[in-house]
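This week, think about what follows.
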Amino acid sequence: MQKILAMILAGGRVDELSVLTQLRPKSAVPFGGLYRVIDFPMSSLMHSGIENVGILTQYRSYSLNNHIGNGAAWEMVGRHRSVSVLPPYTAHTVSQWYRGPADAVYQNLDFINARDPDLVLVLSGDHIYSLDFTPLIEFHNASQADLTMAFLDVPKVQATRFGVGKIEMSAASAGGPLLDYQEKPLSPPDWPGDHVSASLTIHLFSARILHEVLEKHTRLAPKTHEFGKDIIPLMLGKYRVFGYKYDTYWGYTRTIDEYWQTNMDLLGENPKIDPERWQVRTNIEHNHIRDRIPAIIGDGAEINDSLIYSGCKIFGKVEDSILFPGVEVAAGAVVKKSILMFDTRVEAGSQLHKVISDVEVTIGPECRIGFGDPSIPNEDYPQLLQSGITLIGRGVTMPGERQIGCNCIVQPNMSAAQFRKKEYGSGVSVE
């Protein structure tokens, strides 16, 4: 029986998520009312029978460490099952921060070698999906591949957002040899068809080849250490590199727009994301999820197409929104198209529209947030916030009767006394 080790790239902060990753890595960002983003790859690994996992983390990993714990939530505790969180470390020959995903794996080759796997599955920790990795592994073995990459077809006009591959497909298989690969090309490649194969940032390596290629890459003293930009080009034409196509839902959370839309994909009559059917696991000890009482829905409450979790107290109106455990919406308050994380409180008469609130936020009475001109981008991050979403960082206490427009950012841990103005127009950063 083959030994398979998974290495999850989970440690980075992405500027595109702004205040949501100011105090945590992107993989630990709360998602979907109950989960963390990393729960989705962890659950897919569990259901695929991959029970040994290394989690590569670097940036403010406290929240991630607490959430992963000993791996029991994903049944990865036992004599032959484990989860190991792997931050950068001081050693005799290596003593530096991870310089990129490939370097993070390289610096942990001793961890990989100690487990002596046949295959190493390297995957990102910031995507939303439910995958069975078994067909990918079977295809890799049948192809006698050194590396097999997972892909998903997307419209060619989106090619600049992804690493894209040209695969020599056969009618009898879901994959084939990888003929060409471009990492986020400046313009869509001149390949036949109106779709391209986008990388899912899932790389299945034969363990010996992974070690060999990472050593070879490091000896070149490169300036960058990326799998798509550096490792794949190094292997093409010299190793047996294959592509394998999935046809499934795939949610991105790298930008604010992607994060908001992927959360909204949980709603509707036929939601694209179904954590219950997918059997997604989370650590219910984290944030005291297990200990919270059932949600309280008041007599005057009105809830439409929303997810409401344990510990919530709803007396106002909630529409097209996702409320994490412990959220309170007072009588007369209205929350629409918003994502309110753990223990956010919206007091009487306040109105929220397209707001993403981090944990432990208090919105005072009679506030209006997310109303204004959505065409005015954020003054500091015009490319980041330009679709009308307003962000509120964790731990904010906003006094009553404040107005904050669209595409605004409220910095974490602001006290009531720091809101010196009554009104903040669209596109403003409040700090």
